[in-house]
Protein backbone atom coordinates (compact mmCIF):
# COMPACT_ATOMS: atom_id res chain seq x y z
CA UNK A 1 0.00 0.00 0.00
CA UNK A 2 0.88 3.71 -0.15
CA UNK A 3 0.96 5.66 3.11
CA UNK A 4 -0.13 9.31 3.11
CA UNK A 5 1.02 11.70 5.81
CA UNK A 6 -1.77 14.25 6.34
CA UNK A 7 -0.53 17.69 7.45
CA UNK A 8 -4.00 19.27 7.32
CA UNK A 9 -4.53 19.59 3.57
CA UNK A 10 -8.05 19.88 2.19
CA UNK A 11 -7.09 17.27 -0.42
CA UNK A 12 -5.22 14.57 1.53
CA UNK A 13 -8.07 12.11 1.13
CA UNK A 14 -8.27 13.05 -2.53
CA UNK A 15 -4.70 11.79 -2.95
CA UNK A 16 -5.75 8.51 -1.35
CA UNK A 17 -8.80 8.00 -3.50
CA UNK A 18 -6.87 8.82 -6.70
CA UNK A 19 -4.43 6.05 -5.75
CA UNK A 20 -7.24 3.69 -4.80
CA UNK A 21 -8.86 4.42 -8.17
CA UNK A 22 -5.73 2.93 -9.72
CA UNK A 23 -6.24 -0.32 -7.81
CA UNK A 24 -3.71 0.29 -5.04
CA UNK A 25 -4.73 0.59 -1.39
CA UNK A 26 -3.83 3.90 0.27
CA UNK A 27 -4.04 4.75 3.96
CA UNK A 28 -3.87 8.14 5.69
CA UNK A 29 -2.32 8.94 9.06
CA UNK A 30 -1.57 12.22 10.83
CA UNK A 31 1.57 13.78 9.39
CA UNK A 32 3.44 13.84 12.67
CA UNK A 33 2.66 10.19 13.58
CA UNK A 34 5.58 7.97 14.65
CA UNK A 35 6.68 5.76 11.77
CA UNK A 36 7.22 2.47 13.56
CA UNK A 37 7.50 -0.96 11.96
CA UNK A 38 3.83 -1.68 12.61
CA UNK A 39 2.66 1.39 10.67
CA UNK A 40 5.12 0.76 7.83
CA UNK A 41 4.19 -2.91 7.40
CA UNK A 42 3.25 -3.42 3.75
CA UNK A 43 4.01 0.19 2.80
CA UNK A 44 5.79 0.62 -0.56
CA UNK A 45 5.93 4.42 -0.67
CA UNK A 46 5.00 7.53 1.32
CA UNK A 47 3.27 10.74 0.19
CA UNK A 48 3.61 13.94 2.21
CA UNK A 49 0.46 16.03 1.77
CA UNK A 50 -0.08 19.76 1.58
CA UNK A 51 -1.07 21.93 4.55
CA UNK A 52 -2.52 25.36 5.39
CA UNK A 53 0.49 25.89 7.69
CA UNK A 54 4.05 27.15 7.01
CA UNK A 55 7.22 25.18 7.75
CA UNK A 56 8.94 28.25 9.23
CA UNK A 57 5.99 29.02 11.51
CA UNK A 58 5.74 25.87 13.64
CA UNK A 59 4.00 23.87 10.94
CA UNK A 60 3.60 20.11 11.56
CA UNK A 61 6.69 18.00 10.90
CA UNK A 62 7.11 14.29 10.07
CA UNK A 63 8.91 11.73 12.18
CA UNK A 64 12.67 12.12 11.37
CA UNK A 65 12.81 8.37 10.66
CA UNK A 66 10.94 9.17 7.45
CA UNK A 67 14.28 9.89 5.82
CA UNK A 68 15.94 6.65 6.94
CA UNK A 69 13.11 4.21 6.17
CA UNK A 70 14.41 3.63 2.63
CA UNK A 71 11.02 4.08 0.95
CA UNK A 72 10.28 6.35 -2.03
CA UNK A 73 8.90 9.73 -0.91
CA UNK A 74 6.67 12.18 -2.78
CA UNK A 75 6.23 15.63 -1.24
CA UNK A 76 3.22 17.58 -2.50
CA UNK A 77 3.24 21.37 -1.95
CA UNK A 78 3.79 21.70 1.84
CA UNK A 79 5.16 18.15 1.73
CA UNK A 80 7.96 19.30 -0.58
CA UNK A 81 8.61 22.35 1.56
CA UNK A 82 8.76 20.06 4.61
CA UNK A 83 11.40 17.86 2.97
CA UNK A 84 13.37 20.95 1.94
CA UNK A 85 13.20 22.47 5.43
CA UNK A 86 14.04 19.18 7.19
CA UNK A 87 17.11 18.57 5.02
CA UNK A 88 18.61 22.06 5.26
CA UNK A 89 16.97 24.12 2.51
CA UNK A 90 15.11 27.43 2.83
CA UNK A 91 11.42 28.18 2.40
CA UNK A 92 10.05 31.73 2.42
CA UNK A 93 6.70 33.42 1.79
CA UNK A 94 6.00 34.68 -1.72
CA UNK A 95 5.18 38.37 -2.28
CA UNK A 96 2.27 37.11 -4.38
CA UNK A 97 1.09 33.50 -4.04
CA UNK A 98 0.90 31.06 -6.94
CA UNK A 99 -2.69 29.95 -7.29
CA UNK A 100 -4.71 28.10 -9.94
CA UNK A 101 -3.52 26.95 -13.36
CA UNK A 102 0.19 27.67 -13.95
CA UNK A 103 2.60 26.36 -16.56
CA UNK A 104 5.35 23.98 -15.43
CA UNK A 105 8.57 23.68 -17.44
CA UNK A 106 10.81 20.61 -16.95
CA UNK A 107 14.37 21.35 -18.04
CA UNK A 108 16.95 18.99 -16.61
CA UNK A 109 19.00 15.99 -17.52
CA UNK A 110 17.52 12.91 -15.83
CA UNK A 111 18.77 9.49 -14.76
CA UNK A 112 16.98 6.17 -15.18
CA UNK A 113 15.31 6.40 -11.77
CA UNK A 114 13.98 9.91 -12.32
CA UNK A 115 12.81 9.05 -15.81
CA UNK A 116 10.31 6.61 -14.29
CA UNK A 117 8.72 9.48 -12.37
CA UNK A 118 8.92 11.94 -15.26
CA UNK A 119 6.97 9.47 -17.40
CA UNK A 120 3.95 10.90 -15.58
CA UNK A 121 4.63 14.34 -17.08
CA UNK A 122 5.26 13.08 -20.62
CA UNK A 123 2.14 13.52 -22.76
CA UNK A 124 3.30 10.79 -25.16
CA UNK A 125 2.96 8.10 -22.46
CA UNK A 126 -0.62 6.94 -21.65
CA UNK A 127 -1.80 6.15 -18.13
CA UNK A 128 -2.18 2.43 -18.78
CA UNK A 129 1.45 2.20 -19.87
CA UNK A 130 2.55 3.95 -16.68
CA UNK A 131 0.55 1.48 -14.57
CA UNK A 132 2.76 -1.34 -15.87
CA UNK A 133 5.64 0.23 -13.94
CA UNK A 134 7.97 0.05 -16.95
CA UNK A 135 7.30 3.46 -18.55
CA UNK A 136 10.27 5.83 -18.87
CA UNK A 137 10.39 9.35 -20.29
CA UNK A 138 13.12 10.28 -22.77
CA UNK A 139 11.83 13.80 -23.42
CA UNK A 140 14.49 16.51 -23.10
CA UNK A 141 11.92 19.19 -22.22
CA UNK A 142 8.29 19.01 -21.09
CA UNK A 143 5.69 21.73 -20.49
CA UNK A 144 2.31 21.07 -18.85
CA UNK A 145 -0.33 23.08 -16.98
CA UNK A 146 -0.53 22.21 -13.28
CA UNK A 147 -2.75 23.37 -10.40
CA UNK A 148 -1.09 25.38 -7.63
CA UNK A 149 -2.29 26.75 -4.29
CA UNK A 150 0.50 28.05 -2.09
CA UNK A 151 1.91 31.22 -0.58
CA UNK A 152 5.39 29.88 0.28
CA UNK A 153 8.15 28.77 -2.03
CA UNK A 154 11.62 27.18 -1.93
CA UNK A 155 14.28 29.86 -2.15
CA UNK A 156 17.25 27.53 -1.53
CA UNK A 157 17.26 23.80 -2.27
CA UNK A 158 18.48 21.41 0.40
CA UNK A 159 21.85 19.70 -0.26
CA UNK A 160 21.46 16.78 -2.67
CA UNK A 161 18.26 18.07 -4.27
CA UNK A 162 18.02 19.17 -7.90
CA UNK A 163 15.54 21.54 -9.49
CA UNK A 164 14.01 19.56 -12.36
CA UNK A 165 11.25 21.98 -13.25
CA UNK A 166 10.11 25.54 -12.62
CA UNK A 167 6.81 27.37 -12.65
CA UNK A 168 6.12 30.06 -15.24
CA UNK A 169 7.00 32.53 -12.47
CA UNK A 170 10.48 31.06 -12.13
CA UNK A 171 10.05 29.21 -8.80
CA UNK A 172 10.99 25.55 -8.16
CA UNK A 173 8.00 23.33 -9.01
CA UNK A 174 9.59 19.89 -9.49
CA UNK A 175 12.45 18.69 -7.30
CA UNK A 176 14.34 15.38 -7.28
CA UNK A 177 17.10 14.05 -5.07
CA UNK A 178 20.28 13.05 -6.86
CA UNK A 179 20.72 9.81 -4.85
CA UNK A 180 17.66 9.06 -2.72
CA UNK A 181 14.21 8.09 -4.16
CA UNK A 182 12.81 11.43 -2.99
CA UNK A 183 10.65 13.62 -5.23
CA UNK A 184 8.64 16.77 -4.68
CA UNK A 185 6.12 18.86 -6.60
CA UNK A 186 5.01 22.39 -5.77
CA UNK A 187 1.51 21.74 -7.15
CA UNK A 188 -1.43 19.40 -6.59
CA UNK A 189 -1.55 16.43 -9.00
CA UNK A 190 -4.50 15.00 -7.04
CA UNK A 191 -7.00 17.66 -8.21
CA UNK A 192 -8.86 16.97 -11.44
CA UNK A 193 -7.86 20.29 -13.01
CA UNK A 194 -4.16 19.40 -12.97
CA UNK A 195 -2.98 18.23 -16.38
CA UNK A 196 -1.46 14.72 -16.19
CA UNK A 197 -2.31 14.60 -12.46
CA UNK A 198 -3.37 10.93 -12.47
CA UNK A 199 -0.35 10.00 -14.58
CA UNK A 200 2.05 11.78 -12.19
CA UNK A 201 0.67 9.94 -9.18
CA UNK A 202 0.70 6.68 -11.14
CA UNK A 203 4.36 7.20 -12.05
CA UNK A 204 5.18 7.42 -8.35
CA UNK A 205 2.97 4.51 -7.30
CA UNK A 206 3.90 2.08 -10.08
CA UNK A 207 7.16 3.39 -11.55
CA UNK A 208 8.95 4.18 -8.28
CA UNK A 209 7.12 2.16 -5.61
CA UNK A 210 6.59 -0.92 -7.82
CA UNK A 211 2.99 -1.38 -6.63
CA UNK A 212 0.50 -3.60 -8.44
CA UNK A 213 -3.26 -3.24 -8.91
CA UNK A 214 -4.98 -5.40 -6.29
CA UNK A 215 -7.68 -3.28 -4.58
CA UNK A 216 -11.23 -2.26 -5.59
CA UNK A 217 -14.58 -1.17 -4.14
CA UNK A 218 -15.62 -4.78 -3.55
CA UNK A 219 -12.65 -5.09 -1.19
CA UNK A 220 -13.69 -1.88 0.56
CA UNK A 221 -17.27 -3.12 0.96
CA UNK A 222 -16.07 -6.37 2.53
CA UNK A 223 -13.70 -4.50 4.83
CA UNK A 224 -16.23 -1.93 6.03
CA UNK A 225 -18.96 -4.53 6.55
CA UNK A 226 -16.68 -6.56 8.79
CA UNK A 227 -15.65 -3.39 10.66
CA UNK A 228 -19.31 -2.52 11.28
CA UNK A 229 -20.06 -5.98 12.66
CA UNK A 230 -17.07 -5.82 15.00
CA UNK A 231 -17.79 -2.29 16.25
CA UNK A 232 -21.55 -2.51 16.72
CA UNK A 233 -21.90 -6.07 17.94
CA UNK A 234 -25.53 -6.79 18.81
CA UNK A 235 -26.41 -3.20 19.76
CA UNK A 236 -29.16 -1.40 17.86
CA UNK A 237 -28.06 1.16 15.27
CA UNK A 238 -30.04 4.28 14.45
CA UNK A 239 -29.36 6.06 11.17
CA UNK A 240 -30.64 9.56 10.55
CA UNK A 241 -31.51 9.34 6.89
CA UNK A 242 -32.28 12.14 4.45
CA UNK A 243 -33.00 10.10 1.34
CA UNK A 244 -29.98 11.49 -0.48
CA UNK A 245 -27.19 9.37 -1.94
CA UNK A 246 -24.97 9.39 1.15
CA UNK A 247 -27.47 8.41 3.81
CA UNK A 248 -29.22 5.93 1.52
CA UNK A 249 -25.97 4.11 0.76
CA UNK A 250 -25.12 4.19 4.47
CA UNK A 251 -28.54 2.62 5.14
CA UNK A 252 -27.99 -0.04 2.50
CA UNK A 253 -24.58 -0.82 4.01
CA UNK A 254 -26.06 -1.22 7.49
CA UNK A 255 -28.87 -3.42 6.20
CA UNK A 256 -26.37 -5.60 4.28
CA UNK A 257 -24.00 -5.88 7.25
CA UNK A 258 -26.39 -6.33 10.17
CA UNK A 259 -29.69 -8.14 10.77
CA UNK A 260 -32.50 -5.83 9.50
CA UNK A 261 -34.20 -5.88 12.90
CA UNK A 262 -31.05 -4.34 14.42
CA UNK A 263 -31.18 -1.31 12.08
CA UNK A 264 -33.49 1.62 12.75
CA UNK A 265 -33.91 4.37 10.17
CA UNK A 266 -35.28 7.77 11.11
CA UNK A 267 -36.27 10.42 8.58
CA UNK A 268 -36.90 13.96 9.80
CA UNK A 269 -39.20 16.03 7.61
CA UNK A 270 -37.81 19.43 8.55
CA UNK A 271 -39.77 21.40 5.98
CA UNK A 272 -36.39 22.26 4.44
CA UNK A 273 -36.32 19.36 2.00
CA UNK A 274 -36.99 19.06 -1.73
CA UNK A 275 -40.57 19.11 -2.95
CA UNK A 276 -42.39 15.81 -2.19
CA UNK A 277 -39.22 14.41 -0.62
CA UNK A 278 -40.94 12.50 2.19
CA UNK A 279 -42.97 10.36 -0.21
CA UNK A 280 -39.89 9.66 -2.31
CA UNK A 281 -37.76 8.65 0.69
CA UNK A 282 -40.39 6.37 2.20
CA UNK A 283 -40.80 4.43 -1.05
CA UNK A 284 -37.04 4.00 -1.62
CA UNK A 285 -36.23 2.84 1.90
CA UNK A 286 -38.97 0.26 1.86
CA UNK A 287 -37.37 -1.28 -1.23
CA UNK A 288 -34.04 -1.59 0.62
CA UNK A 289 -35.64 -3.97 3.11
CA UNK A 290 -35.93 -1.60 6.07
CA UNK A 291 -38.04 -3.08 8.84
CA UNK A 292 -37.90 -0.08 11.18
CA UNK A 293 -38.57 3.27 9.49
CA UNK A 294 -39.76 6.24 11.54
CA UNK A 295 -40.89 9.45 9.79
CA UNK A 296 -40.87 12.48 12.10
CA UNK A 297 -42.80 15.55 10.94
CA UNK A 298 -40.96 18.46 12.52
CA UNK A 299 -41.35 21.36 10.08
CA UNK A 300 -42.81 23.77 12.64
CA UNK A 301 -40.05 22.98 15.13
CA UNK A 302 -37.23 23.68 12.68
CA UNK A 303 -38.75 26.81 11.18
CA UNK A 304 -39.42 28.17 14.66
CA UNK A 305 -35.79 27.59 15.71
CA UNK A 306 -34.55 29.35 12.56
CA UNK A 307 -36.87 32.33 12.81
CA UNK A 308 -34.97 35.55 12.20
CA UNK A 309 -31.55 33.81 11.89
CA UNK A 310 -29.49 35.07 8.94
CA UNK A 311 -25.91 33.92 9.63
CA UNK A 312 -25.23 30.66 7.71
CA UNK A 313 -22.94 29.18 10.36
CA UNK A 314 -25.57 29.82 13.04
CA UNK A 315 -28.19 28.19 10.83
CA UNK A 316 -26.05 25.09 10.43
CA UNK A 317 -25.43 24.78 14.16
CA UNK A 318 -29.08 25.32 15.06
CA UNK A 319 -30.15 22.68 12.55
CA UNK A 320 -27.44 20.27 13.67
CA UNK A 321 -28.31 20.55 17.35
CA UNK A 322 -32.03 20.33 16.67
CA UNK A 323 -31.51 17.28 14.45
CA UNK A 324 -29.95 15.43 17.35
CA UNK A 325 -32.37 16.85 19.94
CA UNK A 326 -35.34 15.63 17.94
CA UNK A 327 -33.60 12.34 17.24
CA UNK A 328 -32.92 11.76 20.94
CA UNK A 329 -36.50 12.59 21.84
CA UNK A 330 -37.92 10.33 19.15
CA UNK A 331 -35.41 7.60 19.96
CA UNK A 332 -36.64 7.59 23.55
CA UNK A 333 -40.11 6.97 22.18
CA UNK A 334 -38.76 3.99 20.25
CA UNK A 335 -37.50 2.45 23.48
CA UNK A 336 -33.94 1.83 22.29
CA UNK A 337 -31.35 1.14 25.02
CA UNK A 338 -28.64 3.66 25.91
CA UNK A 339 -26.11 1.40 24.18
CA UNK A 340 -27.52 2.16 20.73
CA UNK A 341 -25.12 3.49 18.07
CA UNK A 342 -25.81 6.60 16.04
CA UNK A 343 -24.96 6.17 12.34
CA UNK A 344 -24.49 8.96 9.79
CA UNK A 345 -23.77 9.20 6.08
CA UNK A 346 -20.88 11.61 6.68
CA UNK A 347 -18.45 11.93 3.76
CA UNK A 348 -14.81 12.90 3.94
CA UNK A 349 -15.61 16.24 2.30
CA UNK A 350 -17.91 17.01 5.26
CA UNK A 351 -15.10 16.19 7.70
CA UNK A 352 -12.34 18.16 6.03
CA UNK A 353 -14.48 21.26 5.42
CA UNK A 354 -15.37 21.11 9.11
CA UNK A 355 -11.70 20.81 10.08
CA UNK A 356 -12.17 17.20 11.23
CA UNK A 357 -9.94 15.29 8.82
CA UNK A 358 -7.12 13.00 9.87
CA UNK A 359 -4.97 14.62 12.55
CA UNK A 360 -5.57 18.09 14.01
CA UNK A 361 -4.17 20.53 11.43
CA UNK A 362 -7.09 21.03 8.99
CA UNK A 363 -8.81 24.44 9.03
CA UNK A 364 -12.56 25.06 9.26
CA UNK A 365 -14.16 25.95 5.92
CA UNK A 366 -17.80 25.58 7.01
CA UNK A 367 -19.63 23.57 9.63
CA UNK A 368 -21.62 20.50 8.66
CA UNK A 369 -24.60 19.63 10.83
CA UNK A 370 -23.43 16.03 11.22
CA UNK A 371 -19.84 16.84 12.15
CA UNK A 372 -19.26 19.74 14.52
CA UNK A 373 -22.34 19.93 16.76
CA UNK A 374 -21.72 19.28 20.49
CA UNK A 375 -24.16 16.39 20.65
CA UNK A 376 -22.57 14.57 17.72
CA UNK A 377 -19.17 15.26 19.25
CA UNK A 378 -20.37 13.64 22.49
CA UNK A 379 -21.48 10.52 20.61
CA UNK A 380 -18.15 10.46 18.82
CA UNK A 381 -16.25 10.75 22.12
CA UNK A 382 -18.33 7.93 23.63
CA UNK A 383 -17.41 5.63 20.76
CA UNK A 384 -21.05 5.30 19.77
CA UNK A 385 -20.87 7.00 16.39
CA UNK A 386 -20.76 5.01 13.16
CA UNK A 387 -19.73 6.81 9.95
CA UNK A 388 -19.00 4.08 7.39
CA UNK A 389 -18.56 6.52 4.48
CA UNK A 390 -16.27 9.00 6.19
CA UNK A 391 -13.24 8.08 4.08
CA UNK A 392 -15.08 8.28 0.76
CA UNK A 393 -15.94 10.96 -1.77
CA UNK A 394 -19.32 11.28 -3.47
CA UNK A 395 -18.43 9.34 -6.62
CA UNK A 396 -16.88 6.57 -4.51
CA UNK A 397 -20.10 6.40 -2.48
CA UNK A 398 -22.00 5.88 -5.72
CA UNK A 399 -19.65 3.05 -6.67
CA UNK A 400 -20.14 1.47 -3.25
CA UNK A 401 -23.89 1.82 -3.67
CA UNK A 402 -23.73 -0.15 -6.91
CA UNK A 403 -21.81 -2.91 -5.15
CA UNK A 404 -24.57 -2.96 -2.51
CA UNK A 405 -27.37 -3.04 -5.10
CA UNK A 406 -28.80 0.47 -4.63
CA UNK A 407 -30.84 1.57 -7.69
CA UNK A 408 -29.32 3.95 -10.24
CA UNK A 409 -32.02 6.62 -9.87
CA UNK A 410 -31.09 7.05 -6.22
CA UNK A 411 -27.34 6.87 -6.83
CA UNK A 412 -27.45 9.49 -9.58
CA UNK A 413 -29.35 12.08 -7.54
CA UNK A 414 -27.52 15.36 -7.21
CA UNK A 415 -26.06 16.14 -3.76
CA UNK A 416 -28.34 17.93 -1.31
CA UNK A 417 -26.99 19.76 1.76
CA UNK A 418 -27.71 18.35 5.20
CA UNK A 419 -29.22 21.64 6.44
CA UNK A 420 -31.45 21.61 3.35
CA UNK A 421 -32.98 24.75 1.89
CA UNK A 422 -31.93 26.77 4.94
CA UNK A 423 -28.51 27.30 3.34
CA UNK A 424 -30.03 28.02 -0.06
CA UNK A 425 -32.24 30.75 1.35
CA UNK A 426 -29.94 33.69 1.96
CA UNK A 427 -31.12 35.57 5.03
CA UNK A 428 -33.93 34.55 7.35
CA UNK A 429 -35.86 31.34 6.61
CA UNK A 430 -39.67 31.24 6.47
CA UNK A 431 -42.25 28.69 5.39
CA UNK A 432 -43.23 30.90 2.44
CA UNK A 433 -39.63 31.17 1.23
CA UNK A 434 -39.19 27.41 1.49
CA UNK A 435 -42.33 26.79 -0.56
CA UNK A 436 -41.18 29.27 -3.22
CA UNK A 437 -37.70 27.74 -3.46
CA UNK A 438 -39.10 24.19 -3.57
CA UNK A 439 -41.18 25.13 -6.62
CA UNK A 440 -38.27 26.82 -8.41
CA UNK A 441 -35.90 23.96 -7.64
CA UNK A 442 -38.42 21.35 -8.82
CA UNK A 443 -38.87 23.18 -12.12
CA UNK A 444 -35.11 23.53 -12.61
CA UNK A 445 -34.44 19.84 -11.98
CA UNK A 446 -37.39 18.73 -14.12
CA UNK A 447 -36.15 20.88 -17.01
CA UNK A 448 -32.65 19.40 -16.74
CA UNK A 449 -34.06 15.88 -16.91
CA UNK A 450 -36.31 16.70 -19.85
CA UNK A 451 -33.37 18.21 -21.73
CA UNK A 452 -31.15 15.15 -20.94
CA UNK A 453 -28.74 17.40 -19.01
CA UNK A 454 -29.23 16.13 -15.45
CA UNK A 455 -26.68 13.32 -15.67
CA UNK A 456 -24.10 15.64 -17.25
CA UNK A 457 -24.15 17.88 -14.18
CA UNK A 458 -22.65 17.07 -10.78
CA UNK A 459 -25.02 19.33 -8.83
CA UNK A 460 -27.75 21.78 -9.78
CA UNK A 461 -30.02 23.83 -7.56
CA UNK A 462 -31.64 27.21 -7.03
CA UNK A 463 -30.82 29.87 -4.44
CA UNK A 464 -33.27 32.46 -3.11
CA UNK A 465 -31.54 35.82 -2.76
CA UNK A 466 -32.39 38.28 0.05
CA UNK A 467 -33.42 40.99 -2.41
CA UNK A 468 -36.37 41.90 -4.61
CA UNK A 469 -36.28 43.44 -8.04
CA UNK A 470 -38.62 45.56 -10.11
CA UNK A 471 -40.09 43.96 -13.22
CA UNK A 472 -43.10 44.09 -15.49
CA UNK A 473 -45.92 41.54 -15.45
CA UNK A 474 -48.29 42.32 -18.31
CA UNK A 475 -48.76 46.07 -18.09
CA UNK A 476 -48.22 46.19 -14.34
CA UNK A 477 -45.18 46.95 -12.23
CA UNK A 478 -44.05 43.78 -10.40
CA UNK A 479 -41.73 43.78 -7.39
CA UNK A 480 -40.59 40.15 -7.33
CA UNK A 481 -38.09 37.82 -5.72
CA UNK A 482 -34.72 37.03 -7.31
CA UNK A 483 -33.40 33.47 -7.64
CA UNK A 484 -29.97 32.31 -8.78
CA UNK A 485 -29.48 29.02 -10.60
CA UNK A 486 -26.32 27.01 -9.92
CA UNK A 487 -25.04 24.06 -12.00
CA UNK A 488 -21.53 22.68 -11.73
CA UNK A 489 -19.39 19.83 -13.00
CA UNK A 490 -17.01 18.02 -10.68
CA UNK A 491 -15.45 14.63 -9.98
CA UNK A 492 -15.48 14.80 -6.19
CA UNK A 493 -16.83 18.14 -4.99
CA UNK A 494 -13.38 19.43 -3.97
CA UNK A 495 -13.04 21.51 -7.13
CA UNK A 496 -15.80 22.46 -9.53
CA UNK A 497 -16.39 24.18 -12.87
CA UNK A 498 -19.53 25.94 -14.07
CA UNK A 499 -21.72 23.88 -16.41
CA UNK A 500 -21.62 25.60 -19.84
CA UNK A 501 -25.31 25.77 -20.71
CA UNK A 502 -26.42 26.65 -24.20
CA UNK A 503 -27.94 30.09 -23.80
CA UNK A 504 -31.18 28.82 -25.33
CA UNK A 505 -31.59 26.30 -22.50
CA UNK A 506 -30.96 28.91 -19.82
CA UNK A 507 -33.41 31.35 -21.37
CA UNK A 508 -36.16 28.74 -21.65
CA UNK A 509 -35.62 27.46 -18.08
CA UNK A 510 -35.67 31.01 -16.68
CA UNK A 511 -38.83 31.81 -18.62
CA UNK A 512 -40.62 28.74 -17.30
CA UNK A 513 -39.66 29.66 -13.74
CA UNK A 514 -40.89 33.27 -13.95
CA UNK A 515 -44.07 32.19 -15.76
CA UNK A 516 -44.87 29.44 -13.26
CA UNK A 517 -43.74 30.89 -9.93
CA UNK A 518 -45.45 34.26 -9.88
CA UNK A 519 -43.47 35.57 -6.91
CA UNK A 520 -40.20 35.32 -8.89
CA UNK A 521 -39.41 38.32 -11.05
CA UNK A 522 -35.80 37.71 -12.01
CA UNK A 523 -33.48 34.72 -12.59
CA UNK A 524 -29.68 34.83 -12.62
CA UNK A 525 -27.05 32.16 -13.33
CA UNK A 526 -24.03 31.70 -11.05
CA UNK A 527 -20.79 31.42 -13.08
CA UNK A 528 -18.35 31.04 -10.14
CA UNK A 529 -15.98 28.06 -9.99
CA UNK A 530 -14.71 26.30 -6.86
CA UNK A 531 -12.31 27.69 -5.83
CA UNK A 532 -12.65 30.57 -5.17
CA UNK A 533 -16.35 30.04 -4.44
CA UNK A 534 -17.85 27.05 -2.63
CA UNK A 535 -20.53 24.99 -4.35
CA UNK A 536 -23.33 26.05 -2.01
CA UNK A 537 -23.82 29.77 -1.47
CA UNK A 538 -23.72 29.42 2.32
What does this structure look like?
With 538 residues, the protein is an alpha/beta fold. Helices cover 34% and strands 23% of the residues. It has a nine-stranded mixed beta sheet, with helices on both faces. It has a five-stranded parallel beta sheet with strand order 12-11-10-13-14, with helices on both faces. Strands 15, 16, 17 and 18 form a four-stranded mixed beta sheet that branches. Strand 10 (237-240), helix 8 and strand 11 form a beta-alpha-beta unit. Helix 7 packs across helix 14 (394-404).
The gist of it:
The chain is an alpha/beta fold. It is built from 17 helices and 18 strands.
Which helices and strands, and how do they pair?
Elements: E1 2-6, H1 12-21, E2 26-30, H2 37-40, E3 45-48, E4 73-76, H3 78-86, E5 90-106, H4 112-118, H5 127-131, E6 142-156, E7 161-167, E8 172-177, E9 182-185, H6 197-208, H7 217-232, E10 237-240, H8 245-257, E11 263-269, H9 277-287, E12 292-297, H10 299-306, H11 312-334, E13 341-343, H12 348-353, H13 374-381, E14 385-386, H14 394-404, H15 408-411, H16 431-450, E15 459-473, E16 476-489, E17 497-498, H17 503-516, E18 520-525
Parallel strand pairs: 1-2, 1-3, 3-4, 4-9, 10-11, 10-13, 11-12, 13-14, 16-18
Antiparallel strand pairs: 5-6, 5-7, 7-8, 8-9, 15-16, 16-17
Helix pairs in contact: 4-6, 7-8, 7-14, 8-14
Find the CATH superfamily of the largest domain: Class I glutamine amidotransferase (GATase) domain
Give the averaged pLDDT, no decimals. Answer: 89
Alpha plus pi helix count = 17
**Separation of the first and last Cα atoms:** 38 Å
Amino acid sequence: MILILDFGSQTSQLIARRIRDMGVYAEIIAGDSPLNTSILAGVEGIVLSGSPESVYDNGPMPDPSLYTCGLPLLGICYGLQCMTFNKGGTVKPLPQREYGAIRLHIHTEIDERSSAFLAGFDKTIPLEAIKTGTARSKAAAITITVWMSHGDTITELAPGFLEAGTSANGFPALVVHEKEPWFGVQFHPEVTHCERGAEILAAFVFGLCDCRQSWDMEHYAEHIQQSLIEKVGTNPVLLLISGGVDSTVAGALLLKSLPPEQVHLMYLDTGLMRKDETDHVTAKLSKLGAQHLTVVHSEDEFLSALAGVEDPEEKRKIIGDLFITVQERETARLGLPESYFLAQGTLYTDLIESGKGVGTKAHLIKSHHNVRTPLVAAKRAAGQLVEPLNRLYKDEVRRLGRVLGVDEETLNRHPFPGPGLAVRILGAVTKEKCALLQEVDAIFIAELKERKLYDKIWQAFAVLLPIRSVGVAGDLRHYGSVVALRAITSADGMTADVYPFDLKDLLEIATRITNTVKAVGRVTYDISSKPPATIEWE
